[in-house]
Amino acid sequence: MGPLADALAAPAGRELLMVTAALEPFVLPPQHPLGEGMDIDLAREALALGGGYRLRVEHVPWRRVLALLKAGQADLSTGVHDTPERREYLAFSQRYGESVRYGFYTRRDSGVLVRRLADLQGRRLGLMAGAVFPDALQAAMTGPADRAVDLHSQLRMLAAGRVEVVVGNELPARWLVQHQPYGAQLQRQPFVFDSGLPTQMAVARQRPDFPAVVQALNRGLAQLAKAKRWEALQARYLGA
Question: Is the pLDDT reported for residue 6 higher than 80?
Fold first, then answer.
């Protein structure tokens, strides 16, 4: 057995509660045949390697994720954007995976084209409740917005004609459109906005030992990066 297998097979250590919202393929719904998702797998492995921690995972809407972390009723989550407001109650890990990229989806029969940020102006948008966006993208979103609890609900709103454009994390949106029945009605626009923002995990500062948890995460993530574990997870979940 290698170091990772040894760490995962070790007797249960200190348990952490991760709260997360479904965002396929990073976080898959419970009992999904492929597994828990790329982010959860990576977090489990990083915490086991870096500090002998065990994870218990609860799935809740994204706004609830942030509320539980802020109140100290949960310990950590993945894929959290670092903002000054969130830094007041969260401590962030080193980056992992890829930078955050935003995709844009429309109905095939709408005639709406998104080739640059300016094409979003005045459009009715479907957004995720609690999501924050880079300044350049936020400035372009001048029209009315309907907010949904998750990306799946955003795309369903679009298929029903309630919004004109859905803005969301590019890979999860592409995954859902490929795997959900409503995908045939939707069209991925050619423009993708690469924010350059890192993908990070975040630990609640309400934990008295939060610095130790972040250090464990970073130790594990560094080891997994050297082993190209993210690329292996991509191959498993995406067939890449």
Answer: no
The Cβ of residue 1 has, within 10 Å, a number of other Cβ atoms equal to: 8
Alpha helices in the chain (DSSP H): 3-9, 38-51, 62-70, 84-87, 135-140, 151-159, 170-179, 210-226, 229-238
Which residue type does 55 have? Answer: L
Could you tell me the pTM of the whole model?
0.81
Q: Which whole-number Å values give the CA distances from 236 to 223, 226, 231, 240, in the listed order?
A: 19, 18, 9, 8
- Which of these three, 194, 212, 229, is where a domain ends? 194
How many CB atoms lie under 10 A from the CB of residue 16?
23
Q: What is the pLDDT of residues 120-144, one digit of tens each?
A: 999 999 999 988 899 999 999 999 9
For residues 94 and 221, is the Cβ–Cβ distance under 8 A?
yes
**Distant-in-sequence, close-in-space partners of 160: CB < 8 Å, separation ≥ 6:** none
Q: How many domains does the chain have?
A: 2
Range of the domain at 174: 101-194
**Local structure of residue 29 (DSSP, 8 states):** P
Q: Are residues 206 and 89 in the same domain?
A: yes
Q: pLDDT digits over 144-199, tens only? A: 999 999 999 999 999 999 999 999 999 999 999 999 999 999 999 999 999 988 99
In terms of domains, do 186 and 203 share one? no
What's the CATH number where 138 sits? 3.40.190.10
